[in-house]
Amino acid sequence: MRVLGVDPGLTRCGVGVSRACRAAPARSWPTTWLTDPADDLPLRLLHLDRSLTDLVAEHRPDAVAVERVFSQHNVRTVMGTAQASGVAVLAGARAGLPVTTYTPSEVKAAVTGSGQADKAQMTAMVTRLLRLPEPPKPADAADALALAICHVWRGGTRSKLAEAAQRARRGGTR
Predict the structure, then answer these.
(1) Vertex 51, ends 46 and 5: CA angle to 5°?
(2) What is the pTM of this model?
(3) Which contacts (CB < 8 Å, 24+ apart) does range 71-78 have?
(4) How far apart are CA 148 and CA 15, in angstroms?
(5) Order of strands, edge to edge, in the sheet holding 24-34?
(6) Residue of 39 and 23 predicted with greater confidence
(7) What 3-state class would DSSP assign to 67?
(8) So which residues are the catalytic ones?
(9) How many angstroms separate the Cα of 33 from the Cα of each of 4, 40, 134?
(10) pLDDT digits (tens, 9 = 90+) for 142-173
């Protein structure tokens, strides 16, 4: 399974594609895209959209995992993050991919075993789990790979539970 993880941000958007394979070590491709705060908002969002569209076309992920926006004290920051998140969700949907959002604590718990892990712990575990020669930099890229790992480990369970709930609502079993 190949998953595109997106740590959304308007100024810095971390992205990472990770391929999980039972027979071989996982492969990954992390990076961070920057947009210029001096540019108009539509241009910044367009840059993220084009970059994500190109990345999806190049790496052909099976799914997209996006960090769920959480409330912050700085409304301006949360608005930019929410807008970048929307672009990531749209890019996945446009490609016909399943898109799942995860809270930061869900990702931390999946990757480190603790929902309270700090950035250093997250980066160390991502490096170790993906058998990377060095830690991904900056932290936004490591966070994006952590989202991909979280989806591989938890996404399958979520989708199976959702399918079971849907069958139960229809009154059928399989």
Answers:
(1) 115
(2) 0.85
(3) none
(4) 9
(5) 24-34, 12-21, 2-7, 63-67, 99-102
(6) 39
(7) strand
(8) 7, 67, 140
(9) 14, 16, 20
(10) 999 999 999 998 876 555 555 556 677 787 65
Helix or strand (DSSP H, E) at 16: strand 12-21
pLDDT of residue 156: 60
* DSSP string across 102-133: E-HHHHHHHHHS-TT--HHHHHHHHHHHTT-S
pLDDT of residue 63: 95
Share of the chain above pLDDT 70, in %: 86
Q: Which two tokens stand for residue 124?
A: 């160390």
Give the CATH number of domain 2-170; options: 1.10.260.40, 1.20.1560.10, 3.30.420.10, 3.40.30.10. Answer: 3.30.420.10
Q: Which residues contact 109 (CB under 8 A, 6 or more apart)?
A: 115
User: pLDDT-derived band of residue 131, with 50, 70 and 90 as boundaries?
Assistant: confident
Query: How would residue 77 be classed by pLDDT, with cut points 50, 70 and 90?
Result: confident
Run of H or E including 58: helix 41-59
For residues 45 and 96, give the distance between their C-alpha atoms in angstroms, rounded to a whole number.
20
136's tokens: 């991904």
